[in-house]
Amino acid sequence: MTAPEGFHLESDPLDDPVFATGADTSPAAVCRSVVKTYRTATESVTALDDVTVAIPRAQVTVVVGPSGSGKSSLLRLLACIDSPDAGQVFIAGQRVDRLRARARRSLRQRQVAYLFQRPGENLLPYLDAVAQIRLAAALRGAPATEDDALDLLGRLGLRERADHHPAQLSGGEQQRLAVACGVVGNPALVVADEPTAELDTAAAERVLVAMEDLAAAGVGFVISSHDPRVMAIADGFVRLDHGRLVA
Amino acid sequence: MTERVQPAGGFAATGLVKRFSRGAETVTALAGVDLRVDAGEFVALVGPSGSGKSTLLALLCGWETADEGRLDYLGPLADRPPVGLGWRDLALVPQALGLVADLSLADNVLLPARLRGTVAAEEPRARTLLTDFGLDHLADRYPHQASLGEQQRVAVARALLLRPAVLLADEPTAHQDRGHADRLLDAVTEAAREGSAVLIATHDEIAWGRADRVLSMRDGHLTDGPPA
Q: Checking DSSP bridges between strand B68-73 and strand B11-22, what pairing results, if any?
């Protein structure tokens, strides 16, 4: 077929080597006795101190705690953005903290999605909704057809937005699209940092319903939040205070 | 490297109006803008922040829809909605750059070719652009390992890769020193000489001097010439 140009992805899989291949469906993300310390010119701050947590697949886990408790540091370890100073991190059953940068990036591409707080930061401004999803899938090594993308948009109530660009979407719609990009290709884990902080109640609830629905299909969500609406959909909690796990 | 005949075609806008709601207030970002940029022209769009430049670019590339007015792409691009245009028809450098975090800088430059399935054919040009923009030694780095200026040059290279019929760029030299800014302007000028219709929003007065025409935007109105 003659594929449309440009902003719409080709219908064939993007199977060149830059896109990761294969999908590991191992079910867990685990931090075991992790320690993370940040050093400034004058002091050393322990952001995480001997923290052990397991993030199950098919559930929503919410990380709670006051500001400075270590929530973001934990999310950055789980998202493979940072490495611990001590302890171990496993994603989809594979130990991450000993991997070289390239291997860690490859694993992250396949198995981890990260949602920023600001919806627009999760999307590419020049791609329509279908193309966003298909590019995310291709980067994850699990190419999606246009029909796959449309089905996913339909589940999230965005079917009529298929050819819209991020600037044409509301903040809530952008965040739901980001969730779609996060789950396409079946990563083990979607890490979301305060994903509803910039949304009104109705928009936040639709995002959370989408997360709950998609988690049930097998992806593990781990969300840091102060938002009671987020806590209401939690299957489990990780409570942190001063970098330590609390009961 | 295969020389290709690139699609020609500029665009013409008449009476574009765009309003936004800001709480109870309605803000008119564009108050009836007429604009035409033909193939082979390099036009600089200048004006203070908030004057409507980015809104105009968003309309032209189909990210926003005008409340009133008409926008036509010309020549082979005619009768196609902007959102249906590909990178080879209409390429843009958004202010937010929009690099893919999980792709190397070289692969970000190649993204438009990747979306078309023509990576192999475009690799030589990607390498040339990387070299021209002083990025060849950074090709394997990722966006977070590059400075903002380097990332911006990647975004310009990405837009130029397929020799687009229309090139829209929002402040493409904003994060550059003079030397790199000049190299970017050389490339943009060359794109126009090769037939692209080029419109760049810019505060860079050197860029005004390089353009064939300068248009000034103020409070949603567009006038010919640089600002007074």
A: antiparallel
Question: What's B143's DSSP letter?
Answer: G
Q: Which domain holds residue B53?
A: 11-222
Mutation target among B73, B87, B115 for the A interface, most CBs of A within 10 A: B115
What token pair was written down for B74? 């010309």
Contact: B86, A7; criterion CB under 8 Å: yes
As a dihedral over the C-alpha atoms of residue A70, residue A72, residue A78, residue A79, rounded to 10 degrees, the angle is -160
Structure-block tokens of residue B36: 């035409």
Total structural domains in chain B?
Answer: 1
Residue corresponding to tokens 């295969």: B2
Residue B143 in domain: yes
In a domain, B156, yes or no: yes
Rounded CA-CA distance A117/B31 in Å is 33
What is this structure's pTM? 0.80
Q: What are B's interface residues with A at a Cβ cutoff of 8 A? A: 58, 61-65, 83-90, 92, 94, 96, 98, 100, 102-104, 107, 112, 114-117, 119, 142
Please report the number of interchain residue pairs, chain A to chain B, with beta-carbon separation below 8 angstroms: 74
- Ordered by where they begin, the domains of chain A are 29-245 (3.40.50.300)
Nearest one of B12, B33, B6, B62 to B190, comparing CA atoms? B6
Q: Give the tens place of pLDDT for each residue, A110-145.
A: 999 998 888 878 899 888 999 999 999 998 988 899
Contact A6 B61 (CB under 8 A): no
**CATH assignment of the domain containing B109:** 3.40.50.300
Q: Which residues contact B157 (CB under 8 A, 6 or more apart)?
A: B109, B126, B129, B130, B132, B133, B135
ipTM computed for the complex? 0.74
Q: Which residues of chain B have pLDDT under 50?
A: 1-4
B5 occurs within a structural domain? no
Tokens linked to A217: 């299909």
Helix extents (H) in B11-118: 53-60, 105-109, 111-116
Mean of all residue pLDDT scores within chain B: 90
Question: CB-based contacts of B6: which residues, under 8 Å, 6+ apart?
Answer: B88, B163, B164, B165, B194, B195, B196
Could you tell me if residue B184 is inside a domain? Answer: yes
